[in-house]
Design a protein that fits this description.
It contains 15 helices and 19 strands. The chain has 478 residues and is α/β, with parallel strands linked by helices. It folds into 3 domains: 160 residues, Aconitase, domain 3, CATH 3.30.499.10; 122 residues, Aconitase, Domain 2 (3-Layer(aba) Sandwich), CATH 3.40.1060; 179 residues, Aconitase, domain 3 (2-Layer Sandwich), CATH 3.30.499.10. The structure holds iron/sulfur cluster. Iron/sulfur cluster (SF4) binds next to α4.
Length: 478
């Protein structure tokens, strides 16, 4: 008798259950990879020390510095930390990982970067794994067919000590996007359209699996952008089935199985078997048509308040949304294009990879950032920075008048001093537009790198499609 068809999530989950869940108790789930950074780990290490505990699996723990790190250098090459606390966080992390023999990608590493950019780059993120990190956007790693989710500081301590976590099994939701995306529609637009459809709470209690031709045709960079924002729909995690693109991305990377002795092919065979079985059932299914998706922007103070850039701002659904419109200084029924933009941020673990930077550079090539507007471009990692510079992208950005920075989280979370002034409007490729996320009183519009770049050279929010395939003359349009 054939066994019940299973979903990708079920297969990976079952491989990691140490103790099954009961009515009274969550499951104990083994964790394959624990990514740590300077902000959520110091307290966890302190607790470990107080209790006389060691890190259970230093070899399955990987550290970087990204959240508080300056993205500018002083003339002498030193790093201008915004506060003593930020500097102390980094020093503490470096001391803790040295004490516990954990691999770290610090200042000297060519692999340093935002934790969700450098993990995949190192091949530390692989299909079928369970991955956690003290950062909400750990869901990024689900692009490789891993169960990956953010944890709190207390849980960081648990995983350091036990390499496992207590967790109730989420329900499964398949999100299908089939068809062909129109010209100028990017992975960021796809995920914003999904969140707008299901709502910021729509994924609560679920593990999402992105299915359909749009994700099959999407690059690994694009899949990471989509999975990254699963948490913004409230989901525990988001996943895409591993396929030939996944295998090609991973081959030859530091932690990937060796290609010399058959290990890599054997791993690919195993990874391919993780895809959801035909006929596997999900607790919920959602369907979007690729052709219906247009370039998207947010207009409120959470990512669910997202709309096509060429639509009119929707009516507020409740008092909270009314307050959001008021905070953003926008009015229902009006166009969102034409809003004056003060800052543009292209970066974050959502959109700071090569594909993102190439797209932004294409729009900014030969153009000028509008006077009075600040545009900063922050590569996601040292590797991205190096590759972008090899392709001359940094010269395109700086020739346009944008700032080319050192890798880090930067204005995604504004912990390192990169922030907007009160009232300023930021078009940002990051993942959260909560009030004050990019500085007290700052207003954030989430968008794709294309839309952000178009805003930088236009000074106002514009539909990026006016710059598509029309050559440099398009820069005269606005
Ligand atoms: S870029 Fe933003 S979301 Fe991503 S890891 Fe850094 S702070 Fe977290």
């Amino acid at each position: 008798m054939s066994s019940m068809p299973k979903t990708l999530f079920d297969k990976v989950w079952e491989r990691h259950v140490v103790v099954p869940e009961t009515a009274d108790h969550p499951a104990t789930l083994y964790i394959d990879l624990h990514l740590i950074h300077e902000v959520t780990s110091p307290q966890a290490f302190t607790v470990l020390k107080e209790r006389g505990l060691k890190v259970r699996r230093p070899d399955r723990t990987l550290a970087t510095i990204d959240h508080s790190t300056p993205t500018l250098l002083n003339d002498d090459g030193s790093r201008p930390f915004v506060t003593k606390q930020a500097e102390a966080q980094v020093k503490t992390l470096l001391a803790n990982v040295a004490e516990h023999d954990i691999e770290v990608h610090g200042w000297e590493s060519e692999n340093r970067g935002i934790v969700h950019v450098m993990g995949p780059e190192l091949g530390a993120t692989r299909p079928g794994m369970t991955i956690v990190c003290g950062d909400s956007h750990t869901s990024t790693h689900g692009a490789f067919g891993a169960i990956a989710f953010g944890i709190g500081t207390t849980q960081v301590g648990h995983v350091l000590a036990n390499q496992s976590i207590l967790m109730r099994k989420p329900k499964t939701m398949a999100v299908y996007v089939d068809g062909e995306l129109s010209e100028g529609v990017t992975p960021k637009d796809v995920i914003l359209a999904i969140i707008a459809k299901i709502g910021v709470g729509g994924g609560t209690g679920y593990a999402l699996e992105y299915r359909g031709s749009v994700f099959e045709n999407m690059s690994m960079d694009g899949r990471m952008t989509v999975c990254n924002m699963s948490i913004e729909a409230g989901a525990r995690c988001g996943m895409v089935a591993p396929d030939d693109k996944t295998f090609a991305y991973l081959e030859g990377r530091k932690f990937a199985p060796s290609s010399d002795n058959g290990d890599y092919l054997a791993a690919c065979e195993d990874w391919a078997s993780l895809a959801s079985d035909p006929g596997a059932s999900y607790d919920k299914e959602v369907f979007l048509k690729a052709e219906d998706i247009r370039p998207m922007v947010t207009y409120g103070t959470h990512p669910g308040m997202a709309m096509p850039i060429d639509a009119l701002i929707p009516d507020a659904a409740d008092e909270a949304e009314e307050n959001a419109l008021s905070y953003m200084q926008v009015k229902a029924g009006e166009e969102i294009t034409g809003l004056k933009v003060d800052r543009v941020f292209i970066g974050s673990c959502t959109n700071s990879r090569m594909e993102d930077l190439r797209a932004a550079a294409q729009i900014m090539s030969g153009a000028r950032v509008v006077d009075g507007l600040t545009a900063i471009i922050v590569p996601g990692s040292e590797l991205v920075k190096k590759q972008a510079e090899a392709e001359g992208l940094h010269e395109i950005f700086t020739a346009a008048g944008a700032e080319w920075r050192e890798p880090g989280c930067s204005m995604c979370i504004a912990m390192n001093g990169d922030k907007a002034a009160p009232g300023e409007l930021v078009v940002s490729t990051s993942n959260r537009n909560f009030a004050g996320r990019q500085g007290p009183g700052a207003r954030t519009i989430l968008a794709s790198p294309e839309t952000a770049a178009a805003a930088a050279i236009s000074g106002v929010l514009v539909d990026p499609r006016i710059f598509s395939n029309t050559g440099e003359d398009a820069h005269d349009v606005v």
